Amino acid sequence: GFASMSPSSLTFGAQQNSTTSPTQVVTVTNTGTNTLTFTGVGISAGASDFAQSNNCGAVAVNGTCTVNVTFTPSTAGSRPGTLTFTHNGGGLANVTLTGTGQAASATLSTPAFPATTVGSSSTATSTLTNTGIGSLSVTVPTAAVVTGTDFTFVSTTCGTSLAAGGTCSTTVRFS
Fold this sequence. Notes:
Layout: E1 3-6, E2 9-16, E3 24-30, E4 36-43, E5 50-54, E6 58-59, E7 64-71, E8 77-78, E9 81-87, E10 95-102, E11 106-108, E12 122-130, E13 136-137, E14 151-156, E15 161-162, E16 167-174
Parallel strand pairs: 2-10
Antiparallel strand pairs: 1-3, 3-7, 4-6, 4-9, 5-7, 8-10, 9-10, 11-12, 12-16, 13-15, 14-16
C-alpha cells in the first residue's frame, strides 16, 4: 500500500446530544516511494455529526499527517460515518466512524408536604438528578417559578449547570 493509517476505525461511544466529544486522532503514514498528495479529506455525506481538521497536504515518503475528528450528535441513537481521503496514490482505505447520541435526561422528585393545619406551614424539598451522561443546563429556580397562593419559594442549591450524576434541590413552603 501507498499509505497506512492508524487506527482504521474510531469509536466515540455514547455522547450527549449537542455536546462535542474529546478529539480522536488518525495518523496517516506515507509508505510509498513518492510524495503522497491529498486533494481532499472529509466526512461522508449524511454524517454531519462528525467533524474533522487535518494537516494532510503533501506528505513526504515515510512522513505522516494527522486528522483530528470530533463527534457532536444531533439526535439520539447510532450515528455512523466515514472519514474519506482523496489523493494521488489510490488504494487508501477510509476510516469507519461510530458514535451514539444520547438525549439529556433528568428526574425530578415531587415534594411531599406533611399534613398541615390551617394557619401553620411546612416545607418540602424537590430534588433534581441528572441521569444523563453529560452536563445538564438548569434554569435556576426562583420565587417566580413557584405558583399557587399557598406556596412560596424558600431556597435552592441548583446552579446553572448540573454534572452527570449530580443532584440539586429546591425547598418550597406550604402555608
